[in-house]
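Predict the 3D structure for this chain.
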Amino acid sequence: MTHENPPFAIAVEAGSEGVGPQRIRAAIAALERFGVTIATFEDIGFRDLRAAAPRLDAIEQAAFAAPLSGATGLVPLIRVSAVEPFHLATQLATLDYASHGRAGWIGDVDGSEIEAAAFDRPPLDGSEARRTELDDTIEVLGRLWDSWEDDAVIRDVETGRYLDRDKLHYADFEGARFSVKGPSIIPRPHQGQLPTFAPYGSAAPELVDVALIRERTVLEASAAAGQADSQGIARTIIEVSFALDAPGRPAADRAGAFAADAQAAGRIHYSGDAAGLVELITEVASFANGVRLLPADFGADVQELGRAVLPALRRAGVFTSPRAGEHLRDALGLAHPANRYAAQAL
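Done. Predicted structure below.
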């Protein structure tokens, strides 16, 4: 069972184009200090293969942040059309181990000609092909994470057995563009299943734990959140790009092109003082389970977020920070899922 009154989550985008270790170190330190629920990591992808600056992909960013943090959830955005599902399952499970149960992931799809050329694959044409790719990947990840029962590792010195082989299972998945036999090569993650986030409408509702709502207005976001809830999706998070007034740096001076990009991406955008963002997030909390905030300028905007916005939300009882050592599923009010193969064995 999930919580009837789940905590309200504050997620903040920590990744950026060309991001390196020092930037990640500073970003995660700030987000931990301010007590946000989740740091998300979105890399540049394949938009410009000529980019000369070294960069970490989203999973590498989250993995680097894992030992530097203790409470903030770590959620990379993965373009599933650019990865091999079996390897992705092990990478994300390893991230869950490295973070002691604080990992999740955002499933997305590119499938463009640029990305396809990098892997010598045909591009994914049309929304149906992209949705099938994401659905198949989410399904096979879940099967691979469940392919080890929680008590599969027995470490029986007397018989020399490390594993109980009867508690390992084949994934046996056949999809549109790939097949996976399994089982996984590492044990089931701490959380059993990592929370799966996806843009609303991009995947089958029954496969998604958290729908990311991308709409241009609060009214549209409220309607979409209601639809997601009626489809049985456990949690909804509204995406908001923002720029905040800071001493000597008005938001209007920094938000021009960024606001246009947010509108093009279909997101709500806010520019102005901290009080206005508090009011916006409070309104969102009346119909959704969280916000994913994308700052125009991480340094300036996140400092102002931590100084004036989050304390006001705490005082109003809208938001509480996650506890150190708490699993991300717990921070989101999601139950620990049963293993599908163990249930069948019974």
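The chain has one domain: 9-109+196-345.
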